[in-house]
Amino acid sequence: MNYALLDRGDRLSRALSEEFHSLAKAKGFSVNEIAPDIVVSIGGDGTLLQAFHRFKNQLEQVSFIGIHTGHLGFYADWKKDELSELLNLMGSSEPRKVVYPLLHIEITTPTGKTEFLALNEFTLKSVDGTLVAALHINDEPFEMFRGDGIVISTPSGSTGYNKSLGGAVIHPSLEALQIAEIASINNRVYRTLGSSVILPKHHHCDIIPDPEEELFIGIDHLVMQMSGVSSITCRVADSKITFARYRPFPFWNRVREAFIGSV
Ligand code: NAP
């Protein structure tokens, strides 16, 4: 088995990386940072986001495994003291392959169209403070947004920024995207639905900002500044991320452990 490993860079994650490499070597696994079968992320859910963006052009070939240095995460199934158990299972059994939907984003500027993939979400804010933009669903005008911003999340990203905005938590087996508002201003001119909206795979939405507006565009943990944006189209991506599951950890158990605790 070929694997690539990415860690958060803190002392504990680096030490676990060393331990993983020596256990993996003893099992006959080899490191391949270019074309791995398995991508191992050691740190947190944020580290797995980084791993996803490093290998997002090889999603057909790679499966991801997350090891959390703290509590268990949404993308990180294994804890720091479970490396031997994980490596034993990797050496002796076939994992269940679990796929999660992704978000496809296409941004149009005078220089052309640029495409992005997000594992958690796309975030749009204005550099000047208040964002003004029209939202269309399936090419029909839906609402005129004015407020702090718009977040469009995947089902697995629904427990991230989306949840802080009051959005629904969506099971990642549903191929959908969710549009959530960040502090919309509502009056007679600018009127929004006020609740989050969930679109199925065969629908899409367009955000049409003022092209003069300087924007902050967030793709997961990455933020860039863009101007001249005439439209942004979001839809459920054709590609998916694959996780290698060596033991069951149901999504609703993750949600309960992260947000509710023991009942
Ligand atoms: P960060 O600001 O360092 O950490 C954000 C927190 O979100 C971390 O605790 C991270 O978990 C957790 N997280 C990441 N993906 C998650 C998911 N799908 N479900 C539940 N929690 C999740 O940033 P980061 O670590 O680079 O992560 C970027 C993400 O932060 C964004 O994609 C966005 O979802 C989230 N975010 C949330 C807010 C908010 O809630 N107000 C604001 C901005 C961004 P770990 O500790 O395990 O890494």
TrEMBL record:
NAD(+) binds at D45, G46, N120, E121, R146, D148, T159, G160, Y161, N162, K163, S164, A183. It is an enzyme of class 2 (transferase). GO terms for cellular component: cytoplasm. Keywords: ATP-binding, Cytoplasm, Kinase, NAD, NADP, Nucleotide-binding, Transferase. InterPro entries: ATP-NAD_kinase_N, ATP-NAD_kinase_PpnK-typ_C, NAD/diacylglycerol_kinase_sf, NADK. It is found in: Cytoplasm. SUPFAM superfamilies: NAD kinase/diacylglycerol kinase-like. It comes from the Bacteria. Its EC number is 2.7.1.23. Its cofactor is a divalent metal cation. GO terms for molecular function: ATP binding; metal ion binding; NAD binding; NAD+ kinase activity. Pfam families: NAD_kinase, NAD_kinase_C. It catalyses: NAD(+) + ATP = ADP + NADP(+) + H(+). The active site is at D45. One of its GO terms (biological process) is NAD+ metabolic process. Involved in the regulation of the intracellular balance of NAD and NADP, and is a key enzyme in the biosynthesis of NADP. Catalyzes specifically the phosphorylation on 2'-hydroxyl of the adenosine moiety of NAD to yield NADP. Belongs to the NAD kinase family. PANTHER family: NAD KINASE (PTHR20275). This is NAD kinase. It comes from Cohnella lupini. The gene is nadK.
